[in-house]
Design a protein that fits this description.
four-stranded antiparallel sheet, ATP binding, GyrA/parC_rep, plasmid, topoisomerase, DNA gyrase subunit A, C-terminal, 7 helices, Neuraminidase
Length: 453
C-alpha cells in the first residue's frame, strides 16, 4: 500500500539509483506517506503511530522485486480485499477459541468431513496382541555368504554371488586382501541366518549370525575381530565352527587343549549363548584351547606335541560332556614345558598327514604310520625336532602355508612334498634366518599367482 500511495516518487528514486543496492538504501532512508497504512491499522483495532512510514530493508527489497503490472489500482483493491478477509478470519478464530462449546462443535464438523472423504474400509489390520516372537532377522533374506578370517584376526563377509562359476582349471578370484605376514586362516560358507561359533583360546565361545558379520568387498581386508567380539586383552580366536540355520546338529565338537585335555560336546549345547560369551570348556591353570574339531563320534583323533610325539586313538574314547566339564587326558606330555601343537580328526587311517618341525622341515606320511593306542599314553616318535604343526592332506588343489616367528609366510603346493615314512627326517619346506622358527601350519585351497581380481 505504501508503494501504491507513493508510486511516482518511488519510480523516480529507483530510476536515479546507480544500482539495486543503492535503490534499496534510498527507499529505506525516506519517510513515506502512510495514510493508507494508518487506516488499515485503525480497522484492525490498532493505533497508528503517525502519518509517515519508514520501510524496512526486507520491505524495500520486496518493492524492488515487484513487477510493473502489480502497481495498478486493481492491486490496491486486491490488497484491501485480502486484508478484510484476514480480519474476518481472525475474528472467527478468536470467537472459536473463546467458547469451548463452539470449538468442540467445529472439531466434530471437521472430523465428520474427514470421515466422509476417507470412507473406505481400513486395509491394514491393527492387532493388539501381536506375536511377540517377531525378530529383526525375519526381515533379512537367508542368502548364502562366504566368511573369511585371517590369521591376524581380520574378518568379513561376502555375498556368494561375488564368485561366479568357472570352468575347471580357471584361475579363481581373490577372496580377501591381506598384509605381509598375514594369511586367510578360515574361509567357509554359511547363510545370513547361519550361526558362527567363535571359540577362543581362553575357553569361551561367542555366537554370531551371518548377517552380523561386517560385509566387505573381495579386495577389502575386513574388520578386526575385537570390533565384533568383546574379547579380553590377550584373548584370541582359536577356531571357528560354522553351521546353517536349518542344519542338522548331529555329531560332536571335540575340543583339544594345549596341555592335552579333550572332551566331546554336542553342538546343541551352544544354541543359547550370551552376547558377552559363554564358557565352553573349564580350563586348568596355564592351559588354553588349541582346536575344536567337528566329528561324527566314530573316527580317530591324531595329536602332535612340541616334543615330537604323536598319538592316534579312537574318538569314542572321549565321551560327551557338558560345557563346564574340563575333559579327559589324551596324551602324557614329556615335560611341563611340552604342549600339544596340532589336532587332526581322521575318517580312516589311510589319510595323509603333513608334519612340520619348527626348523622348517616337513614330511608327508599316512596316519596308519602312527600306531593306534589307547588315549592317555605318551604316543610314538613323530619327529626328532620340535613339531610346529600338522595338517591333513586330502589331495590335489591344496596349498600349505607356513608362518614364521618373524612374520614371513611361505606358500607351497601340498603335492610337491613327497611321501615318506614316519621315521624319515623329511625335506626342507622353508629356509629360516637365525633365531626364526615356524609358528603356524595351515592348509588352504590352491590359487595361482595373478588371480582374477
Amino acid at each position: 500500500m505504501v508503494a501504491l500511495d507513493n508510486l511516482d516518487e518511488m519510480i523516480s528514486l529507483i530510476r536515479q539509483a546507480e544500482s539495486p543496492a543503492a535503490a534499496r538504501d534510498a527507499l529505506c532512508a525516506r519517510e513515506w506517506s502512510g495514510a493508507a497504512v494508518g487506516e488499515m491499522l485503525i480497522r484492525a483495532g490498532r493505533k497508528a503511530a503517525g502519518a509517515v512510514y519508514r520501510l524496512s530493508v526486507e520491505q524495500a527489497q520486496a518493492i524492488l522485486d515487484l513487477r510493473l503490472h502489480r502497481l495498478t489500482g486493481l492491486e490496491r483493491d486486491k490488497i484491501q480485499g485480502d486484508f478484510t478477509t484476514t480480519l474476518a478470519e481472525i475474528a472467527d478464530l478468536e470467537r472459536l477459541l473463546a467458547d469451548r462449546t463452539v470449538l468442540l462443535a467445529k472439531i466434530a464438523e471437521e472430523l465428520r468431513a474427514i470421515q466422509s472423504q476417507y470412507a473406505e474400509p481400513r486395509r491394514s489390520e491393527i492387532v493388539l496382541d501381536a506375536d511377540d516372537d517377531f525378530v529383526a532377522e525375519d526381515l533379512i533374506p537367508d542368502d548364502p555368504v562366504i566368511v573369511t578370517l585371517s590369521h591376524a584376526g581380520y574378518i568379513k563377509a561376502l555375498s556368494a554371488n561375488e564368485f561366479r562359476t568357472q570352468s575347471r582349471g580357471g584361475r579363481g578370484k581373490l577372496a580377501a586382501s591381506v598384509k605381509d605376514g598375514d594369511f586367510l586362516e578360515y574361509i567357509f560358507t554359511t547363510t545370513k541366518h547361519g550361526v558362527l561359533l567363535f571359540f577362543t583360546d581362553q575357553g569361551r565361545v561367542f555366537a554370531r549370525r551371518g548377517y552380523q558379520i561386517p560385509e566387505g568387498s573381495r579386495t577389502a581386508r575386513g574388520r578386526a575381530i575385537p570390533n565384533l567380539l568383546p574379547l579380553d586383552a590377550q584373548e584370541k580366536v582359536a577356531t571357528v565352527y560354522a553351521t546353517r540355520a536349518d542344519a542338522d546338529t548331529q555329531g560332536s565338537l571335540l575340543m583339544v587343549t594345549r596341555q592335552g585335555t579333550a572332551k566331546r560336546i554336542a553342538p546343541d549345547q551352544f544354541t543359547r549363548i550370551r552376547s558377552t560369551g559363554t564358557r565352553a570348556i573349564n580350563l586348568r591353570e596355564g592351559d588354553s584351547l588349541l582346536a575344536v574339531l567337528a566329528t561324527q563320534g566314530e573316527g580317530e583323533i591324531l595329536l602332535f606335541t612340541e616334543a615330537g610325539r604323536a598319538i592316534r586313538f579312537a574318538e569314542a574314547e572321549v565321551r560327551e560332556m557338558g560345557k563346564n566339564a574340563a575333559g579327559v587326558r589324551t596324551i602324557r606330555l614329556q615335560s611341563e614345558q611340552d604342549r600339544v601343537t596340532a589336532a587332526i580328526a581322521l575318517e580312516h587311517a589311510e589319510q595323509k598327514v603333513l608334519v612340520v618341525t619348527s626348523d622348517g622341515m616337513g614330511k608327508v606320511t599316512t596316519a596308519e604310520e602312527f600306531r593306534r593306542t589307547a588315549r592317555g599314553g605318551q604316543g610314538v616318535i613323530a619327529a626328532r625336532k620340535p613339531i610346529a604343526g600338522a595338517a591333513l592332506i586330502n589331495g590335489e588343489g591344496e596349498d600349505i602355508l607356513l608362518l614364521s616367528s618373524q612374520g614371513i609366510v611361505t606358500r607351497i603346493p601340498a603335492n610337491s612334498i613327497r611321501e615318506t615314512s614316519r621315521t624319515a627326517r623329511g625335506v626342507r619346506l622353508m629356509r629360516l634366518d637365525a633365531g626364526d622358527q615356524i609358528l603356524a601350519v595351515e592348509r588352504v585351497p590352491n590359487t595361482e599367482e595373478g588371480e582374477d581380481h
